[in-house]
Write a structure and sequence with these properties.
The protein is an alpha+beta fold and 237 residues long. 48% of the residues lie in helices and 19% in strands.
């Protein structure tokens, strides 16, 4: 039985590596910042958060394969070496590098569920009211803003970094939305982070997820690409 298992593992791993390389090429051609499709749940999911998903995406295909095969599926480095066509020492190093990147992206100060949603509710209210002073008080000094429009809807062409730049971006968005009608669909956890789903003035859904550390918003992830939001249209509120 061992030989067929090893053969299947090698085949599946090679197919996945080919897919990852193809996805990386498509990602390089993507318009603006890329974010994974939003998974919206009423409860938080501790194991897979949006920062972790982005960290996995930034790994090289070989690093991701070595990490997942060893740390998730419990394969030995000798078996991984056969699957990847590398020696065991190289695979161990690939997994170690991946593990270091993943560890750096794990939330250091997990926020309690209800408190996270309270902060998300306050963020939503301040952003829709155009209360930039209140929003500024909620932001961490090193906050980042990611906005994925995929070239299909208006969105920032790059990631915004730092308190000043993010605050200016939020102020600009508030000015553009002044007098327009949008609505809150629901508060929820989006890819493991507290956030909310809204229907924007153009009639299309949008998700916003907040990475919260020490009661401050450290990262804002806004999904505006309609292709990645279509699966939410038929979901009950």
């Amino acid at each position: 039985m061992r030989a067929p298992e090893a053969f299947l593992r090698r085949i599946v791993t090679r197919l996945c590596l080919d897919q990852l390389k193809s996805a990386r090429v498509r990602r390089e051609e993507y318009v603006g910042p890329w974010l994974p499709d939003p998974i919206v749940e009423p409860e938080e999911t501790e194991d897979v958060t949006l920062p972790l998903m982005l960290a996995l995406d930034r790994l090289s295909p070989l690093e991701r394969a070595a990490f997942l095969l060893h740390d998730v599926f419990g394969e030995s480095f000798d078996d991984i070496a056969n699957s990847l066509g590398r020696d065991a020492a190289a695979c161990r190093q690939l997994a170690a590098r991946a593990r270091e990147h993943i560890r750096a992206e794990r939330p250091r100060y997990p926020v309690e569920r209800e408190h996270g949603l309270e902060i998300a509710q306050a963020f939503f209210a301040a952003s829709r009211e155009g209360d930039i002073g209140r929003l500024g008080q909620m932001l961490a000094h090193d906050v980042s803003l990611y906005s994925d429009g995929g070239g299909k809807r208006p969105a920032a062409g790059r990631v915004m970094h730092g308190w000043e730049e993010v605050k200016r971006s939020l102020a600009a968005i508030a000015r553009l939305q002044r007098g327009l009608t949008g609505e809150l669909v629901r508060m929820a956890y989006v890819n493991g982070l507290p956030g909310f789903v809204t229907r924007e003035p153009d009639g299309i859904l949008q998700t916003t997820a907040l990475l919260i550390e020490e009661n401050r918003v450290k990262a804002i992830y806004v999904m505006r690409n309609p292709d990645k939001l279509r699966h939410l249209e038929n979901r009950p509120n």
